[in-house]
What we know:
Blueprint: H1 9-12, E1 17-19, H2 25-30, E2 44-47, E3 53-57, H3 77-95, E4 102-105, E5 115-118, E6 124-128, E7 147-148, E8 152-156, E9 161-167, E10 171-182, E11 197-201, E12 205-206, E13 212-217, E14 222-232, E15 239-242, E16 259-266
Amino acid sequence: MKVKFLPQAFLAATLLISWGVVSPAISHAEKGDKIPDRMLADTIIQYDDNNNMVIVEKGTPVPEQQKSKVSIAPLTAEQQIESEKEEAIIKKIEEDKTPRPVYHIENPAPQPGLKVIYDGEGLIKDIILPNNVSSDVYGLNALPRGTRNPAGDYRYGASNNVISISGDKHGSVLGTGRGTNFTDTYGENGNRLQRGDCATKGAIDNPKFGTTIRVRNSDNDIVHEFSKADNGSLPDAVVDIWKTGVEDLGLTWHSYTSFSARYSYNF
C-alpha cells in the first residue's frame, strides 16, 4: 500500500474533481465509457491497445451476504459505553461544521493499459494506471504522511463514500461509507501489520502513523479504536481494517468481509 505523492498533485486532481457538482466524467458513463463499478469477485480486467476490456483473471460468484438475516446481538455494557462516547464525539464534530465545498471524485476513464482489480465482493479494490500516465492526476497516490486535503466533503465510489474534513492545522475528519479489510504483511512504515491496525484513503486523508482512529460498524453499532498503520487507494471504501481486526467490530473475518463504516479522529 506504500505510495508516493507530489504536493502539487491535489491541484492536478481538479481535472477529475468538481466543486459542488457532478464531474463531467459522469457523462461518459452514459455512453458506457466507464470502468465497471462491479464484477464477479476477485476479477482482474485490463484494457488493450484498442481500449477493449480484457478479462485477465476470471472472477467467481460473490458469496451471499447474510447480514440482513442475522439477528444483531445486544451491546454489552462496555460496548454501549464506547458507542455512546463515539456518538458524543461525532455530535461535536457535526456541530463544529462550517459550510465547505463538495468534491465529486471520479475513477479514471478506460484507457489502454489500465488495470482494475476487484475485491471479494466484486467491488473495485485497486486501479493501476498505465506507466505513461501520472497517478497524481487521478488522486490515486497518497498525500505526505500527517496531512490531508483542504477542508471539504469528498464523495466517491459506488458505495456512496464521503470523507468530510473540517479545519486546516487543527480540526477533524469524519468518514462514512464502506469499510473493508486487507491482508498485507507490512505497512507504510516498514512495520509488520497486526490485529488492531487500519489504513485510510491516503490520497484524501493520510494521518500520522500511529494515529488513533475511531471506527463504528454501523450495522451493529460496535465501536473500536484502531491504529493507523498504512494507507491505500481505497477506490470504494473509507477505511481498511487489517485482517482479523474486523472481529473487534463484531464480524467474522473472510476475504470478502465488509461493513457499513464510520471513522473519525481529531487533528
